[in-house]
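DM from R.C. (forwarded with permission)

"hey, sorry to bug you on a friday — could you get me a structure for this? deadline for the figure draft is monday and I only need the backbone to look sensible"
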Amino acid sequence: MVSSPAFKKYLTICISAAFLIGILFFGLTSGAVEIDFFNMTNVQKDILLHVRGPRVILAALVGAALSLSGALFQYVMKNPLADSFTTGVSSSSAMGAVVAIMIGTIKLIPIFALVSGLIGLYAVYRISSVKGSVQPITMLLAGIVIHTFAASVISLMKFLSDDAVSSIIFWLMGGFQAASLENISVLAVVLIFSILVMRTEFLSLDIISFDDTTAASSGVNVDRLRKKAFFIAALLTAISVGYAGIIGFVGLIIPHMVRLLKFVKASDLIPISLLIGAGFMVLNDLIARTAMGDGRELAVGIITSFIGGLFFLYLLIKRKRELFYFD
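My reply, with the result:
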């Protein structure tokens, strides 16, 4: 007989999958040009195959990647406020991408973002490491330092680059206008690789969320797991930033929403977060494309930042006593 927790998990996965499928359908059919799957013109087919389809799929992949990244950050740092935005990885990745825009190597933005993001992650580790040991709260503070530094460098580059400043600002706001089959393929491979790598560590992630001593006594190599999870999270963030710009707070909102549903085990939280995160991002992109109503688009990053800011405020006001603990 199926146990109640297992039934709740699979029911939630089915509902999340149905939500994702439904929002994918609306994302593909809705926009400046409405598309009817059963009566498409040649123009509509071209829009679906070459513009809207890649955009919607990239949005789903970025949403899933950022949700997984945020969940990993929160597990290894034992703090529900940790994500790629608050740990500085997004900003350091964006700094590298802005450099690529300034020097005119647009196609190399993902590579610059990845290298810069990994450098930022290494800096966080070096700043927060004491005698080979790293404290999660120290890592969070180090991430804020790196975020502040990267943001100041980005502002300086915008000030110095008159010709590219509009491109930089537009890209930093986040969006999926540059979606392509190449982008989708790379991000899909990275996401699948990340899921397969971390799937074997779900139990260790649960154990490490208590304290390092308990985890070590249970046979978990805490430092190795933390480095592994941070590398995967930074990789997902850097690739997402390289293809879509800075889209903040997704990694904060989605895993925490899943925890509010009482799914705290990694084997439950991560699959559900992937599905909800993908659907959430497609929904935000749909709103960005249709909210203005006159063919203009909002930046997706503006919408997610607005929602994330409200959610962040909710956490601060309603859950002050639980901010540094998993419940």
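R.C.: lifesaver. The beta strands are 129-130, 133-134.
me: no worries. Residues 4-322 form a domain with the ABC transporter involved in vitamin B12 uptake, BtuC fold (CATH 1.10.3470.10).
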